[in-house]
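Module 6 notes. Inverse folding takes a fixed backbone as the condition and produces residue identities as the prediction. Think of it as a translation problem where the source language is geometry and the target language is the twenty amino acids. Below is one complete input and output pair. Work through it position by position during the lab.
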């Protein structure tokens, strides 16, 4: 491998959300313990990105900054070459985060009391956005067949038909279950959304993290008609691990929809992206594809390490391989622990800090989500720690 994916950089005391959360959960953990919860990477940043930012900073005037041609070219070029998606500069609306974008979409396209459909278990801020904006959460649970998740189209159709349900927030690829929806699946979702006049937020923040053998299909490319009701959320933040730089590209081809969306952003003055965010996005999309390719290989290796660990030692605990993201969804229900007990066991006994499945919805009860974007030896060490204590409770 060309890149250093073995060195672990301690983020203790740097304000890392994930690390601070770990110390809050268990203040006693040693300096050698690493969390695998919040979705950012425990990997050194792409050297091309760091070098590029350093060179930029040598001569930068750090004033108010808006998107510029080099930035737009990079975003348009990446979507074209990586995703076979032709977008125009004026379709791009910048927000600091994708979460900001779906909060804004909620304000733009629904009123208090309207129903918003989501497919649980799903990235928990979808529910927060609905609750915080006093909309009604309408759950259309995914179907779980021995760990393989699919969409319940009949139920979705039934819910979409109800006039009070106005918006779908769709996660593609899907966090936390790791599915990369295929073209046929996307076509069916699009058809139901169009037929029932739903506005669709397609959160495609994970679209670049696709495991070997799978392809991401951009939702906007499956059905031309869908574009008149579609807000697509993209960002370089998961792809190149730059969430701290707060830059997202929200792509909306329909002019009226875009206007309404921008209004909802502007009313809270929420569209300010920082100068380093633009520059990092540009560098990521033009210079860091090689790094991304190696990250994907690392994640694929790590998910196989985790799967084999459970198969060899605790076969009733299931860790199926993912199709996309860097998050593995592991079923600990065989332990027959309550969610709170499982959480305590993980935090206090195993010192294994993951995202608890139940936070993604009741459908995630008994599950844990492991962040695989870390050096393999760091994951192996955590699994060893888990093995020691799991042996005592596994029957
Ligand atoms: C599906 C999904 N959407 C959005 C985000 C975060 O978006 P942002 O940090 O850009 O607000 C995440 C982070 O894990 C995610 O998994």
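Target side of the pair, the amino acids:
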């Amino acid at each position: 491998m060309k890149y250093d994916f073995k060195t672990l950089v301690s983020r203790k005391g740097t304000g890392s959300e994930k690390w601070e959360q770990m110390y809050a959960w268990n203040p006693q953990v040693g300096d050698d313990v690493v969390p695998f919860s919040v979705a950012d990477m425990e990997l050194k940043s792409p050297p091309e990105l760091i070098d590029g930012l350093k060179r930029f900073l040598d001569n930068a005037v750090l004033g108010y900054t808006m998107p510029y041609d080099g930035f737009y070219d990079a975003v348009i070029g990446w979507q074209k070459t990586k995703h076979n998606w032709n977008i125009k500069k004026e379709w791009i609306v910048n927000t600091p985060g994708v979460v900001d974008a779906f909060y804004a979409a909620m304000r733009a396209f629904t009123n208090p009391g309207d129903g918003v459909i989501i497919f649980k278990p799903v990235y928990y801020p979808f529910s927060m956005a609905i609750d915080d904006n006093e909309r009604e959460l309408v759950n259309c649970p995914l179907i779980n067949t021995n760990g393989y998740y699919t969409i319940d189209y009949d139920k979705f159709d039934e819910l979409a038909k109800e006039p009070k349900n106005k918006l779908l927030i769709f996660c593609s690829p899907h966090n936390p279950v790791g599915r990369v929806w295929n073209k046929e699946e996307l076509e069916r979702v699009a058809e139901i959304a169009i037929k029932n006049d739903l506005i669709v937020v397609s959160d495609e923040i994970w679209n670049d993290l696709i495991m070997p053998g799978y392809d991401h299909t951009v939702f906007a490319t499956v059905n031309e008609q869908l574009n008149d009701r579609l807000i697509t959320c993209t960002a370089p933040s998961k792809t190149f691990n730059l969430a701290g730089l707060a830059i997202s590209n929200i792509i909306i081809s329909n002019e009226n929809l875009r206007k309404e969306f921008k209004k909802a952003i502007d009313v809270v003055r929420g569209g300010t992206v920082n100068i380093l965010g633009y520059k990092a996005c540009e560098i990521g999309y033009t210079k860091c594809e090689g790094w991304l390719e190696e990250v994907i290989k690392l994640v694929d290796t790590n998910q196989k390490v985790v799967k084999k660990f459970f198969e060899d030692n605790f076969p009733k605990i299931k860790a199926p391989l993912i199709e996309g993201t860097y998050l593995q969804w592991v079923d600990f229900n065989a332990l027959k622990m309550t969610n709170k007990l499982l959480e305590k066991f993980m935090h206090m006994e195993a010192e294994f800090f993951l995202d608890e499945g139940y936070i993604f919805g009741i459908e995630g009860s008994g599950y844990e989500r492991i962040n695989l974007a870390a050096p393999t030896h760091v994951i192996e060490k955590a699994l060893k720690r888990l093995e020691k204590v799991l042996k005592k409770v596994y029957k």
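Reference fact for the lab report: The CA atoms of residues 191 and 226 lie 8 Å apart.
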